[in-house]
Amino acid sequence: MMETERTYRSEAKRNRRILLLLLTTLLLLSVLFLFAGRYPKGGLTFPSDLATNHLMQNIMLNVRLPRILLALIAGAILSAAGFTFQMLFSNPLVEPGFLGVSQGSAFGAALVIVAGTNNSAMVQVSATFFGLLALGASYFLAKRFRFGGWLLRLVLSGIAVSAIFSSALGVVKLVAEPTKDLQDITFWMMGGLWNSNWKQILTIMPVVLVCLAILFSYRWRMNLLSLQEKSAYSVGLNPKVDRTVLLVVATVGTTLTISLTGLIGWVGLIMPHLARKLFGSDSKAALPGSMVMGSLFLLLCDTVGRTLLPTEIPIGLLTSFIGAIIFIVILSLKHQGGKA
Amino acid sequence: MTALKIDNLSFTYPSGTRALSNVSLEVGQFTTLALLGSNGAGKSTLLDLLFGWKPSSNIFLFGKPLKEYGRKELGRNIALVPQSEHYNFSFTLLEYTLFGRAPYLKEMASPSDGDVRIAYEALEMVGMASFAKRSVTTLSGGESQLVLIARAIAQGSKVLLLDEPTSALDPANRRKVIEILNLLHDQGKTIIFTTHDAQFAYELATHVAMLKGGKLLSFGTKERVVTSSLLTTLYDTEMTVCTVGEKTLIY
């Protein structure tokens, strides 16, 4: 008996060590990448050049630092939200995008852009509202469908809701002013952190940090919500309430973030998978692991995207490309009866 | 002392199907009660009502109306072993059994070393401790049932509900489940299980409640209730109870 307790504790200790290692790497890379960019020339800036170059100081503090911070926050919340959706729907292949949240948010943001409102707070509110609306619609439709099991119905309703918002987005794009609004909307669809500045980040950061804190504090209980509803109820949970709270928190965090960054796909799907490979399926360790890995992934993708070529590569394109490759590899190597 | 009291309980589904009509019975502490009946007799509905999954004002647990129990308080008093569970994530058996400790933990807390010890002891009790690090996704049907029982044992409640605990098990695993439930009975647990298998009900239960078409056909000690005539009425087919040596056979 003591042996198992020791094993359980040593595994927890091992997970903490890996998490600490990842966090340290994240911190070091964040500092290192402050010096990486294409000004004054491609590559790393030497700290000695910094003292005399005021423009460089300005770029580091007001362009790169908020951008890196946004990459960290966005990576953490997109990954945590994906993880949460997977646990709540007891399906390792679900993420907010599958239930129409991303398309709903994109439509919400595009609508405000076309309406001529240049207010980023309005874009955020609208993106969040339509993201939640899409989630609610997917959930409601899945309840109404009379075909297949709950998960299949949910995925099907998500596809339908996504398609409806996609076509609505198409209409908005058709009427958008081509030289300005259409470009802004296109930015949305490809995802990118180039637009980040302190003011915008500080608008979303408090709420997103609260969302992250709530998801983090629920990390062990999330395991229970992956059980069938009756089982979760029998061990003292109120699964309907817990699921609703966590879904809303994950969706608000996601939509607020993508209202700034545009659509960044695959992070919420792939990072939780990798985290489970590294930390095990217990969300007590895998959720924080997933957050840190999401931050690391977006930081790396964004840095590659802004430094590799003279023209910036949109981060959404990179995350989709790399994410899809990782996905293929994971599925090809999958063991344990195809379970996550 | 009465563990569970069901007082004139009726239940109708939103679709209008009446599942239970005027069921009344009292289950004493340390009783092992079989809810016996054919498919669709209302057994599973009754079980759902007993742990509050479906709301009712006519059920009393240790003298207190079930609906007055808080969620966690109820979890500490009554545990459910579902017929099956879908495992979509590769939790280890120990991690999975630890889920039974949830009613004792604060909203945002994680299990303590003490909880790990209790979960491990529960796995020991069902003979699965040596596989504590194995993934639940690799379990066979019989092993899965044992782990579900372990989760309920870890819950530490006085009342245990089991939904068709042996319906999908081979004879060896069936025997194992009976031994574990007998052990739990000896430890003072009140056990209530549904089954359509009269032989299994007789082997395990001290008391039997027969349900037919949502109505209580008969309730009492197994020796009094499990008779050829009542079983024939219950199943609408000829049933015989006979004694061979010390064994009671039902066919």
List keywords for this structure.
heterodimer, A: 340 residues, mainly alpha, ABC transporter involved in vitamin B12 uptake, BtuC, two-stranded antiparallel ribbon, globular, B: 251 residues, alpha/beta, Rossmann fold, 4-stranded antiparallel sheet
Give the CATH topology of chain B: Rossmann fold
How large is the share of residues in beta strands of chain B? 25-35%
Low-confidence stretches of chain B: none
The number of E-state strands of chain B comes to 12
Order of helices and strands of chain B: EEEHEEHEHHHEHEHEEHHEE
- Looking at CATH, the homologous superfamily of chain A is ABC transporter involved in vitamin B12 uptake, BtuC
In CATH terms, the superfamily of chain B is P-loop containing nucleotide triphosphate hydrolases
Structure description:
The complex is a heterodimer of chains A (340) and B (251). Chain A has one domain (49-338): Orthogonal Bundle (ABC transporter involved in vitamin B12 uptake, BtuC), CATH 1.10.3470. Chain A is an all-alpha fold and 340 residues long. Chain A has helices spanning 2-34, 47-50, 54-88, 101-114, 120-144, 150-175, 181-190, 198-217, 221-225, 229-234, 239-261, 267-279, 283-307, 315-333, and strands at 36-37, 43-44. The longest helix of chain A has 35 residues, at 54-88. The model of chain A has no long low-confidence stretch (mean pLDDT 89). Helix content of chain A is 76%, strand content 1%. In chain A, helix 4 (101-114) crosses helix 11. In chain A, strands 1-2 form a two-stranded antiparallel ribbon. With 251 residues, chain B is an alpha/beta fold. In chain B, 33% of the residues lie in helices and 27% in strands. Chain B contains nine helices and twelve strands. In chain B, a hairpin with a 5-residue loop joins strand 1 and strand 2 (18-28). In chain B, helix 4 crosses helix 5 (141-154). Classes of the chains: A mainly alpha (340), B alpha/beta (251). Chain A binds chain B through residues 1, 4-5, 7-9, 87, 90-92, 217-221, 223-224, 226-228, 230-231, 233-238, 276, 280-282, 284, 336-337, 339-340, and chain B through 48, 51-53, 71-76, 78-80, 82, 85-92, 94-95, 99-100, 102-103, 105, 107-111, 113, 116-117, 120-121, 124, 129, 132-133, 135, 137-138, 151, 155.
